[in-house]
Amino acid sequence: MCYRVKQHVCVKYLGVLIDSNLNWSSHVQLVRSKLSRASHLLFKIRKFVSIVVLKMLYYSFVYCHLQYCIMSWGTANNSILQPLNVLHNNILRIMTFSIYSCYVTALYKNLSVLKLNGKYRLELAKFMHKLHHGALPKIFDNFFKIIYNSYSYKTRFADNQNYFMQRVCANSKKSISYRGLRSGKKAKRV
């Protein structure tokens, strides 16, 4: 008995919209619509509550949508993520009663909130930390190989564990393996 498999342009799986091109535009549009509703709510209520309450509402209605599965859709092109960044900036302006032309980096710092790219890098760093300490499921064991003693002579970095990517694919610069290694190298430099 043969069953026909229907091809879909977009499929919702565990709350994430996965499109056929894997460019995440459908999911980013979904997150934008949720954040748009949240920005309207924050705009209406901001005159009646303190900044502490506004931050609680931000984490309840905005941050949760930005953080959910960002390891997957955070690799989207900047052209797809840009409208989401603009909306996120507007939400922070609404919370602080700032004008549209104000510099948003100060708002992020004053509110102790990460930018979208910072949220992605944080989740990636958490992933690499869990990998390093063996707290991830066994499926991730094949993503990286640990190299011990990569130096034949004693240096200050000789005892460090190093990782290298075992799998290379055509679009490897967007993969968790590649970006995880890059984030680890940046963290070691700090």
Quickly list its features.
mainly alpha; about 190 residues; 7 helices; about 55% helix; single chain; two-stranded antiparallel ribbon
How would you describe this protein?
By secondary structure, this protein is mainly α. It has two domains: 10-113, no CATH class; 133-189, no CATH class. Helix content is 53%, strand content 8%. The protein is built from seven helices and four strands; from the N terminus they run ββααααααββα. The strands form two sheets. A two-stranded antiparallel sheet has the order 1-2. Strands 3-4 form a two-stranded antiparallel sheet. The chain is globular. The model has no long low-confidence stretch (mean pLDDT 83).
Reading the helices and strands in chain order gives EEHHHHHHEEH
Percentage of residues in DSSP E strands:
5-15%
**Overall structural domain count:** 2
Shape: globular
The computed structural class is: mainly alpha
Proportion of helical residues: 40-55%
The strands making up the biggest β-sheet line up spatially as 1-2
Q: Helical element count?
A: 7
Give start-end ranges of low-pLDDT stretches: none
Q: Report the average pLDDT across residues.
A: 83
Q: Tell me the total number of β-strands.
A: 4
What profile does the largest beta sheet have? 2 strands, antiparallel
**Distance between termini?**
60 Å
List the helices and strands and how they pair.
Blueprint lengths: L9 E4 L2 E4 L5 H21 L5 H17 L2 H4 L4 H19 L7 H8 L4 H17 L11 E4 L14 E4 L10 H14 L1
Helix pairs in contact: 1-2, 1-4, 4-5, 6-7
